[in-house]
Amino acid sequence: MSEDTFNEELIEEVKANEQIWNTAHSDHRRASKLDAVWYDIGIKLNRAPAQCRKRWKTLRDRFKRENNRLKGSEGQAASSWPLYTLLTFLRPSSSPRAAISNNMAGTLPDQTYRNSSTGEQSDSPHSDPLSTFDFDSTIHELENLRSNSPLDLAPDELWFLAIGKELKTLSRKRRIHVRQATLKALYEDLEEE
């Protein structure tokens, strides 16, 4: 499949899956749903889901630049980019986000955190992700990924994919801490060898 054909087919697949591009869609922020959609798109296009995602980000970003350039020009000249017209469905969702400054602290709504394994809600983020981590479910997901995946992934790569869903339930600060601790442990083991 040529790159032009891949780009066009990818755009059609994404257009058909509104949860990817429509920020108002109920599943837009549900990582597990989006992962499943990207997996299906990867299968249909015979590419790795990560490759499809990366290419989509490139196409979407280029569309936003083209769209902003056209908005800024006096006359509404048409874009010379051949894929621009295929991506016009993004126009309603390509408006810039409202900026949040540090001066607005305290004016934001209260954050509620949900424990993904128990479904319980609390006002504070998870204190210890391992205490609520569902190892059996993750192992089951890992085995399913390995047996059903057309991609040739090593068990460790699949393990990292499986824990990704749990990481997404943590606050940004906690995710960074977990990443740093993981890297530190890896580097310490490498130094011992």
Automatic annotation (TrEMBL):
One Pfam family linked to the record: MADF_DNA_bdg
Gene Ontology biological-process annotations: regulation of transcription by RNA polymerase II
Positions of transmembrane segments: none
Residue ranges occupied by any MADF domain in the UniProt entry: 9-95
Residue span(s) of domain HTH myb-type: 36-64
Record-linked InterPro entries: MADF-dom, Myb_dom, TF_Adf1
Biased composition (Polar residues): 100-124
One CC-aspect GO term: transcription regulator complex
Region spans: Disordered: 100-130
PANTHER family cross-referenced by the UniProt entry: MADF DOMAIN TRANSCRIPTION FACTOR, SI:CH73-59F11.3
Name of the protein this chain belongs to: Uncharacterized protein
Organism: Lygus hesperus
